[in-house]
Amino acid sequence: MVATDCGVDGIPRAVWDDVALIWRDIKTGAKVPTYEYGHEVYYDSTYQAHYADTGNLVDAESPRLCPRCGCYRLPDGEDACLGHISGVTGACCGHGVQEGYVLYEDGTVSAPPSTPTK
Q1: pTM for the complete prediction?
Q2: How far apart are CA 28 and CA 113, in angstroms?
């Protein structure tokens, strides 16, 4: 499997290491942490994601709270603290572990609006 992780700006930042089952920084080769809604995850040999702190499978049946705002995702998958933003194709609050972003339909990117923290 060859995969590249690009930021919202389209610049490749990491490449998937199929042997170690981790993302590696494209420049340094160092492990890049992978997160699901602000919680670090790892992948097993069948490419299923597990929470790093418990080993539990990441699935819709066991959602976790956002570590930043303390809310669950909305039913449609949007970040609760951002809610629905018109004219947007993607948005993320960053969940306290990454910088958030708003990706507009015209391709422009900005920081998310100020969001509450728990």
Answers
A1: 0.67
A2: 32
Cβ neighbourhood burial of 66 (10 Å; 0-12, 13-18, 19+): buried
CA 12 to chain centre: 15
Taking the C-alpha atoms of residue 64 and residue 71, their distance in angstroms, rounded to an integer, is 8
How many other CB atoms are there within 10 angstroms of residue 38's CB atom?
19
Tokens of 16: 């998937």
Of residues 90, 69, 113, 96, the one with CA closest to residue 8: 90
Any residues with CB less than 8 A from the CB of 19 and at least 6 apart, and which?
A: none
User: Could you give the dihedral angle defined by the CA atoms of residues 33, 76, 111 and 58, in that order, rounded to the nearest 10 degrees?
Assistant: -10
Query: What are the residue ranges spanned by the domains of the chain?
Result: 4-51
pLDDT-wise least confident of 1-5, 27-31, 59-63, 65-69: 1-5
Tokens found for residue 89 = 């194709």
